[in-house]
């Protein structure tokens, strides 16, 4: 009644609709920018799929310098987006906390409700990126490959040096 009927009775219906329109446009622009940012990052910066049967692209950047430039120019937008996500996360936690307070034997955000928490989704995404880029097994494997390649190149260089030395000597 306070938001719809009273402004119309007091002849402020157009002002109320103008404020509602500005708020709706603002939210639509923010959501559009979020979707556009995710689409651009997935389309242009991630490496292509490894095989045709893969469901997702690997979490590896294709053009790191362009990604850093893209990230740099969207920094202030992402700061405001993070602030909004923090506030909405607090609001959703308060709502879920009051709704699920009777279940004192479980956590506030139960299994199945994790999708409502943007922080949880960001944490899981960060774990995936850390796993793909700093996995200890992968890092050790790459280190073994690099050192093994260097040792083979050094042994080949020594072998060729001995061959060159023997080719230069004349048999007596």
From TrEMBL:
Membrane topology: Multi-pass membrane protein
Subcellular location: Cell membrane
Keywords for the protein's UniProt record, in alphabetical order: Cell membrane, Membrane, Receptor, Transmembrane, Transmembrane helix, Transport
Main localization (coarse): membrane
Pfam families according to UniProt: RBP_receptor
Transmembrane segments: 20-46, 74-101
PANTHER family: COILED-COIL DOMAIN-CONTAINING PROTEIN 180, STIMULATED BY RETINOIC ACID GENE 6 PROTEIN-LIKE
Protein name as catalogued: Coiled-coil domain-containing protein 180-like
Organism: Ceratotherium simum simum (Southern white rhinoceros)
């Amino acid at each position: 009644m306070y938001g719809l009927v009273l402004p119309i009775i007091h002849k402020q219906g157009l002002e109320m609709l103008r404020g509602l329109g500005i708020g709706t446009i603002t939210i639509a622009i923010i959501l559009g920018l979020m979707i556009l940012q995710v689409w651009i990052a997935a389309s242009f910066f991630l490496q292509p799929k490894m095989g045709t049967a893969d469901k997702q692209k690997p979490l590896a950047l294709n053009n790191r310098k362009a990604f850093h430039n893209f990230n740099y120019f969207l920094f202030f937008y992402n700061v405001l987006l993070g602030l909004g996500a923090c506030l909405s996360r607090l609001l959703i936690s308060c709502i879920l906390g009051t709704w699920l307070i009777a279940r004192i034997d479980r956590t506030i955000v139960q299994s199945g409700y994790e999708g409502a928490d943007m922080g949880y989704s960001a944490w899981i995404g960060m774990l995936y990126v850390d796993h793909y880029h700093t996995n200890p097994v992968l890092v050790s494997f790459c280190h073994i490959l690099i050192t093994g390649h260097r040792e083979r190149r050094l042994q080949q260089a020594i072998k060729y040096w001995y061959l060159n030395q023997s080719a230069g000597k004349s048999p007596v």
